[in-house]
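Researcher: Go.
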Amino acid sequence: MVQSLDVTFTEPIDPATFDYHDVTLTRDGGPDLITGDVKVNRVSDTVYRISNFNWVVGNQGTYTFTVSAVGILDAAGNTGSGSVAETWVMETGKPAAPANVVMSPDLGVSPTDGRTSVPTVTFTGTVGETNLSVRLFDETTLTDLGTATITGTNFGKTVTFAAGGAHHVRFNAVDAAANVSPDKFFDVFVDLTAPTATLAAVTPDPRATPVSSVDVIFSEPINETTLDRADFSLTRDNGANLINAGVNLLYVSGNTYRLGGLAGLTDATGAYQLTLNLVGIQDTAGNAGIGSVTESWRVGSNTPPVIAPIPNKTIAPEQLLSVIISVTDTDVPPQTLSFNLDPGAPAGSSIDPTNGLFTWKPTRAQAPGTNLITVRVTDDGTPPLSATQSFTVIVSDYSVLTVGTNLVRTGQSGSVPITVFASAGLTNLAFALDVDTNRLSAFTLSGAGPQVGLASVQAVSSNRIQIAFGSTTAAFQGQMKLADLNFIALSNQTSAFVFLQPTNIQATEAGAAALTNVFVNGGRVVVIGNEPLLEAQLTADGTRNLVLYGKPGSSYQLEYSGDLSGTNNWNNWIRVPLTNLFQLIENVDPNGPDIFFRAYEFIANPPLIDAHAPTNQIGSLTLFGQAGVGYRLQYTTNLAGVISWSPLLSYTPTGSFYFVGGLSLSNPIIFYRIEKP
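Model: Structure:
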């Protein structure tokens, strides 16, 4: 209600001339409600506040508040004229609740059941008087849905629900005095999910008797007016639709319906398929189904699958053969087929049991040969039936050309053997050999085998030589040596691995036929100069070995590192006195899986001693020093106090090391030293 009102004059007035007698207040045109209790207080020279009349304006009605200036004087004594009035309405009653609420689109079975399949709907309705507003609130999600648009006494509001499901919507009318009407509720169910269905399985399958009915189970209640037998189709052996007027559709319970009257349509032998088209079927919110569902069965006996003829194949050893086995099966619904190979299939061959992909990569040991392979395919019908189909795979002849290996000091001559294996007789064999001719030169052939009638070698270009062999009256067959390839390792070169790789191979079988199945094992020459070489080896069981190549009589320090990012990450590992051109170091594993190694030659000055104490208690020493220098080896058993060293032997190494063996370890502690005179 109104607590006070301010009145503003055009100029300052005499406050003594302005009191409640100059004010009137009426309700609905009735008597003056102003009494002496009304207060007039000065706010400023021209503004005065009239208050303490609120106790007479609490009843509903239209109030008129009037101030007359006739008896009011300004500061100069001039009398005022005219009056000013303010009118307001006092509302104390609640407006009526909104009525005739309707939702659109209402897509349910009835147009007023509040079910829809879209999240955005429009509510409309009416109110009992004008100048009202209507507010909406979702009691389910506790969401304010906003204020409706009102024209006269009609209102409308479009709402988008954030989630599907049930929504309990409250409507309230509110007048200008903020009086709120009683609640009006409207229940909405937003269903955003299309209905699905399954057809009950027909058992047994295959069967000897017709099927009288099939149940269909929906995922939710449906609008029954959208379901009839026209939504079904029934075919036999992919023929015409058998559904006719004799087929009936009955409600069973829950969401289950039964399609009956099928016995007379399914008594003939054949493959049947029942299909339900869901596109025209709606749930109770108007959602239409999508796609279709099917159920298939067979009346009558099972039929075996049929394998298409498989062409015979010819392949080389170590060549992958892949063949897709093509199968047809007239049974409907399609049966699951499984593939396997009958006994007698060659070792290593296989077939995928599900898709019929046959694969085989014959080994060299299986060549040459003719292999009869039988494929079997079996269905999962009752009873299971199978079919077989055979084909032949011929593995052709082959040859293996091998160039051998050797170790050679720079400036010295050497050779590598050239051998061949031929499963069928060869009369001619020619090939190019890629080799670094800046390291190896002066190539000749010697030591030709008895079947070799022609052997030649010549340089054809930089880093390539041509080698040719021709047979005598007896062809090259089986494993045999053709000749030795001789060469000289050039002087003044660094140590290196020189690879000998055959290429451009031409082989002729007896009868002048070209043989294309030639396998190659390349050779290698390890050229040893002043620098050591290291070679890493990994055995089949994962053991790591190292091979050190170097000069006999030299000593080498081996180092390892697990990190090559820096410059000083190398650690001493072992010292190796090399007695031959190479030494195998087995089971290498200093500290972990990622290890790098390097080696360098050293000459110990002063001398060094490596002691070895094997499990047989017979010790040995390796004494590192300078070649041609005399040394004395001494020992003692106690380093405390005054040390007494006893002579063991005097020696002069011819290389950079000297071995001392056969040391008895009867005393548990023995100390050794080398004295250089």
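Model: Residues 399-528 form a domain with the Immunoglobulin-like fold (CATH 2.60.40.680).
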